[in-house]
Amino acid sequence: KRYITILEFADFFETYRSSIVEMLKLQTDRMDAIEGVNFSVGQGVLIPKLKSAESGTENK
């Protein structure tokens, strides 16, 4: 076992939080782009496949 300091934990947590925020922003941008294409075309040309964040499997 190795104990970590509060500074190491704070750094790890901030990096983790930043990564999650960036991932959610990228997912939002992707969905906005897909919706924009579908709106421009007037029908559902692109239909996104949703993935479960925890298991990595596709939702049907």
Compressed to H and E, one letter per element, the order equals: H
- Structural class estimated from helices and strands: mainly alpha
Assign an overall shape.
Answer: rod-shaped
> What count of structural domains?
1
Helix content: 55-70%
Radius of gyration: 18 Å
Tally of individual helices: 1
**Number of strand segments:** 0
Termini separation: 42 Å
Sheet with most strands: none
Uncertain residue segments: none
How much β-strand is present in the residues?
A: under 5%
Q: Quick check: average pLDDT?
A: 86
What descriptive keywords fit this protein?
about 60% helix, about 60 residues, 1 helix, mainly alpha, single chain
Q: Explain this structure to me?
A:
The protein is an all-alpha fold and about 60 residues long. It has one domain. It is built from one helix and no strands. It has one helix at about 5-40. The chain is rod-shaped. The model has no long low-confidence stretch (mean pLDDT about 85).
